[in-house]
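CO-FOLDING WORKSHEET

Operator: S.A.
Ligand of interest: zinc ion
Run index: 512
Mode: holo prediction, single chain
Checklist:
[x] sequence pasted
[x] SMILES validated
[ ] output reviewed
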Amino acid sequence: MAEYVVIARKYRPATFEQLVGQEHIARTLQNAIKQGKVPHALLFSGPRGVGKTTTARIFAKALNCVKGPTPTPCCKCAPCLEIPEGNCIDVIEIDGASNNSVDDIRLLRENARYAPSRDRYKIYIIDEVHMLTTQAFNALLKTLEEPPAHVKFVFATTAPERIPATILSRCQRYIFRRISRSEAVANLKKIAEAEGIEVDDEALAFIADKSSGSLRDAQSILDQARSIAAGRLTLKDVSRLLSVTDTAFLADFVDALIDSDPAGVIRGVENLFDQGVNFRSFFAELVAYFHKMLVSLSIPKGERLTFLELGAEESQRLIEQADRAGKNKLFTYLDKLLSIESEVTKSAIPRVAFEVAALGLCHLADVASVETLLAKLSEVQKSAGGSGQGLLEPVRSPSPKRASFLGNSQTGEKPTKMPTPRSASQSTSRPHAPVAQGEDRRFVPPEHRESAQRPVRTAPKPASNAKSSPKPENEALYNASNIPIVQEALRLFDGVIEDIKRSPEKPKPPGT
Ligand SMILES: [Zn+2]
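OUTPUT RECEIVED:
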């Protein structure tokens, strides 16, 4: 019986052209080889399972191929065949997590001094290089400062921020990106066809979703799923295998939350429990779903579908839910979800913790936010006749007793009709009635109260040499007397405009 080779290994890319989702890196490396400008140290950073080690091996093949260095290794010569198997004498793969001591790196330095045994270069591929100790990094730094001409280093890491700056500055950096949903689906489809696996498209899409950008994970899931499916592989098979819920169930649950339907929430939790779903991971999926809803409202409509990376039907539903809930509500939900995250994920009784949290979210819709209340208050104030510029601004009313459309239950006062807001032109052209009557006097300083009760003269004082056609400065006086804030000042202090001086720093005010 032939040895079974797992999908991820069987379909591992052998050339730069076969790399999935890292075309930008393949092109740059190929160009460097073509131009003979290969750096002596390269750093590959990016999430797990996106092809960093695979790319390092292809790069090693390209440098050491008998026909090389070449951007297109032959895949037939000894180095090309040995490197992917990890048994090439001049390509040394080191796991940084388990060989992280200063002694390990000293040994590496010793060996690096010797010329390669057979091939063109001695190539060190250090995986998870961020796991090296500080002393190990210091030892490595010496080699990087004066590298032997026959040595190349390829460092791979998922956590570049943990690598010292002195090391980073001596490496040429390549940033690997997550594999997109469509790239993963296309890759899985190709493999399924080659392997004769019958599988539904939605099952493949679901696998791609759940592997969050890691092609290796996606391929492993397909591998496992094929062995449990009796016949055609369906979405149900995959979701059962992963012990996670499908997006439709998640969307139903979100409906129950945003529609404040506690019965729906309880039914959902019951269902999850019956299916043996892990509540901690479902909680994480719920947070991710709300996050997608919120972000979908913040990006242009045309870009929503590409961002969401969901099926067309699922995307439509998510967007519809987001629109229905609105930004404010979604902010509140996410805020609450994140604040209770540790309670749910660390609880010894996750089902109860999750159910309580979900029911709490369900009632969140009834609680208006402070912002909403303030906005409502401000609206009320505006329609009550205030200028609406601020909550504390005094409202001027002709009589000392303020009209109230809410009425007063203690005095038995009936509510008055809600006044309609005044237009801007109405409010500025209102007659200059004496102010400071009744309670509004409180807002006028005592020393000005008497004068403030007198009517105001706002007509400009004509200059002694005034003629029938106004001179520029008279025009300026006239214009100034029409500015509402000036009118207000004149009224308060019973003043007249004597002169206008322009401030040298400030730009000329319009209309003067
Ligand atoms: Zn070759």
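REVIEW:
The two ends are 97 Å apart (CA to CA).
Residues 387-445, 460-468 have pLDDT under 50 and may be disordered.
[x] output reviewed
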